[in-house]
Sequence to fold (283 residues):
Amino acid sequence: MTLLCFTWALQQISLKAVSDQISPMLMVALRSLVAVVLLGGLMAWRGERLDSRRWGAGAAVGVLFALEFLLVAEALRLTAAAHVVVFLYTAPLFAVLGLHVLRPEERLVFRQWVGVALAFGGTAVAFLGGHASLATGSQVLLGDTLALLAGAAWGATTVTIRSTSLTRAPASETLFYQLVGAVVWLLPAVWLTGQWHFEPTARVWAHLAFHSVVVSFISFLTWFWLMRRYLASRLGVFSFLTPLFGVLLGAWLLNEALEPTFLAGSALVLAGIGLAGRAAKPR
Fold:
């Protein structure tokens, strides 16, 4: 999970770093297309087939996955990569709230409710106070809003997987539905929004390879494998590392400014996610 968190933070930095050469939405669509080909080959080699009884749930997570990255791509055009990482990784909060309602074994205890309240309070601080030093405050605010909505979409994806027949599906099948959803929905969105910008430089191809093989294929496959073996709330304990990595990498690699208010809010978010993600002790 620590390696996954570092990889997921780095993906946002990568999308932002080459956004002047390839639009983030096109990058996500292309990486999903490459990854679904790789995954299809792996499934064929293993003799795995899609279960028609899970197609409905698969279509739902495919739409949510595409929506998440549509919002991420738009957010990266408007705000800093560090902001996107922090607000996107409020997803565990939305997930634990949904799972609390739908999954008895993942009900929240008092300290987890405190964590949820703390994290949402931190989100408000970072959201409302992190734009003072940026010239285009309203634009950044919109980008932050889109990133937060992307976090909600990711949280809804987790809830859907854990609350439907997909919870018993192989990791490869779960990922296949989402990658197909990203291709089916994002490629038309790229065309409709005119975000076809692509410069075939060595730098762009290197970033596309990283996204396709490391992020969309290896890391996502590993994530769904973990979700079948551990409670989502326990995995959420580690997820707080991703926004931490994202803020540090954004400052280091992209020279993004670290606003004091945004950092304070981010610290509250991290602390809240840590509390909310802790599993209750057996009684």
The chain has a mean pLDDT of 85.
